[in-house]
From TrEMBL:
Source lineage: Bacteria, Pseudomonadati, Thermodesulfobacteriota, Desulfobulbia, Desulfobulbales
Domain Sigma-54 factor interaction, residue spans: 137-366
Keywords: ATP-binding, Nucleotide-binding, Phosphoprotein
4-aspartylphosphate PTM positions: D52
Protein name per UniProt: Two component, sigma54 specific, transcriptional regulator, Fis family
């Protein structure tokens, strides 16, 4: 059943919409402010939003970019009492499904709901069908899968994409994945690092120049924008562009034409733009450091890459894959990673994210090339100390590891007894297996003897609960890269 959210502070209009949605058999939720609306969007997947513009805590249009960033973005219908052509343009450019003016009659409301949901449904079906080439992107955490889903959604369009995320989270890798999954895959992928654009040369670097345009210009030279013709232009660290350059870029984006330095004629370039930043462009717009019009143009489709500390589940896969690649690159025999080492890697908050993880592993391997495994001692002291500190702190904290799940669904309704019983049994079984492996120090034969399980039964249970011997604290055997999943034996 589709879920519809109505964000409007006018109780009469909100109730009218809610009533119509319910009559059509949809689940309808009301919110009287931006904050309430955001809380509802975070609490459950929403398919369609009716959004008022003037709300007690701000302008509804400002929320559009963050709605687009949701793992499954809803269709948005702006409903306003004050018709405003600029607002309508802004809304449509930011991906709104429609812009309507109050009052609305019942028939119109029903038609809009049906059309928007029909489209939403088709869009979802298409997104699910896309076969994505992941490039070199590693990870199976829910957050990275949701980002890959967004890559699939935008790859087969020509829309501009803004990729945000801390340094080293993979922004360039994702930009490349969008390119390789698009129809432009066989055309150039041109990278411009906006942090290192020298003021005097920037125009010639981006737009090219004619022979004799300035001292040292001995021949005509193609700029990066021309080189990207037919392909993708990736502007890395776009938050570093000066206001002057932002203005020039906006013009290029609007007109799709540029003029090389020293030439009279404008030239055309058909490129797809992907931009990336680790800065908060919304805040920069408010502080007057980034042009609002350029921001709206860039942020129509935004992908936010989560920091590594929020996807601990991916650390093991990344580490294993990096060790394999690094050993191959240096022609070393493949090394294992000790379970204790993995535990330390997982506990670290990784401020430099994936790049940092890779560098740490490379240094660890190079520091002791002949050792067949990576031990904690190969890791930098600050990373080991972080783990030791958190272990000491957690010992002092009163805690209860054994907290069974509540009998309510995430939406607050009581679960049917059968479902609740299944969840409890799953929980107890997983808890037992974790304790068992810990007691047996990761030794499968000992664990089987303790639990009175056959080997195959234990392996089946471990697989069912996505547990692996190598990742259990205290496991004795170093994980060998040639045997990454002992449960598959
Ligand atoms: N999911 C991933 N799987 C495998 N490798 C990854 C992943 N994400 C990032 N990397 C690797 O981490 C390193 C940093 O990635 P990348 O340069 O794309 O990050 P970035 O966010 O663009 O960094 P910066 O903001 O500093 O430019 C690269 O070596 C990249 O290949």
């Amino acid at each position: 059943m589709a879920h519809i959210l109505v964000i409007d502070d006018d109780p009469l209009f909100r109730d009218l919409l809610l009533e119509n949605c319910s009559v059509l058999g949809f689940e309808a939720i009301g919110a009287a402010s931006i904050e309430e609306g955001k809380a509802q969007l975070a609490a459950q997947p929403i398919d369609l939003v009716f959004l008022d513009v003037r709300l007690p805590d701000g302008n509804g249009l400002d929320v559009l970019p963050s709605m687009n960033r949701l793992p499954s973005p809803p269709e948005v219908i702006i409903v306003t009492g004050m018709g405003d052509a600029n607002g309508a343009e802004l809304a449509i450019k930011n991906g709104a499904w429609n812009y309507l003016q109050k009052p609305l009659n019942r028939q119109e409301i029903i038609l809009q709901i049906k059309r928007a949901l029909e489209y939403h449904d088709k869009k979802r079906q298409c997104a699910n069908k896309v076969i994505l080439n992941r490039d070199e992107i590693i990870g199976t955490s829910a957050s990275i899968l949701s980002c890959l889903n967004q890559v699939a959604q935008c790859s087969n369009t020509d829309t501009g994409v803004l990729i945000t995320g801390e340094t080293g989270t993979g922004k360039e890798l994702f930009a490349h994945a969008i390119h390789t999954n698009s129809a432009r895959a066989h055309q150039p992928f041109v990278v411009v690092d906006c942090t290192n654009l020298p003021d005097q040369l920037v125009a010639s670097l981006l737009f090219g120049h004619a022979k004799g345009a300035f001292t040292g210009a001995d021949s005509d030279r193609q700029g990066l924008i021309e080189q990207a013709d037919g392909g993708t232009l990736f502007l890395d660290e776009i938050g570093e562009l000066s206001l002057d350059l932002q203005k020039s870029l906006l013009r290029v984006l609007q007109e799709r034409t540029f003029r090389p330095v020293g030439k009279v004629r404008e030239q055309k370039s058909d490129f797809r733009l992907i931009a990336a930043t680790n800065r908060n462009l919304e805040a920069m717009v408010q502080q007057g450091q980034f042009r609002q019009d350029l921001y709206f143009r860039l942020s129509a489709f935004t992908i936010h890459l989560p920091p590594l500390r929020e996807r601990e589940a991916d650390i093991e896969k990344l580490a294993v894959s990096f060790v394999l690649a690094i050993c191959r690159h240096h022609h070393f025999s493949i090394k294992g990673i000790l379970p204790e080492t993995l535990e330390i890697l997982k506990a670290y908050p990784w401020p430099g994210n994936i790049r940092d993880l890779r560098n740490v592993l490379e240094k660890a391997i190079l520091s002791d090339p002949s050792n067949p495994a990576i031990y904690p001692v190969h890791l930098p002291p600050e990373i080991r100390l972080h783990h030791i500190r958190s272990m000491v702190e957690s010992r002092h904290e009163p805690h209860n590891h054994f907290q069974p799940p509540p009998p309510h669904s995430p939406r607050g309704t009581i679960l049917p007894y059968k479902e609740y019983r299944r969840q409890q049994l799953d929980f107890i079984e997983k808890h037992y297996l974790q304790s068992l492996l810990q007691e047996a120090e990761g030794d499968i034969s000992t664990a089987c003897a303790m639990a009175q399980f056959s080997r195959s039964h234990l392996y089946n249970l471990l697989k069912l609960h996505s547990l692996s011997v190598a990742t259990m604290p205290g496991a004795r055997t170093p994980e060998r890269l040639s045997d990454p999943d002992p449960t598959t034996k």
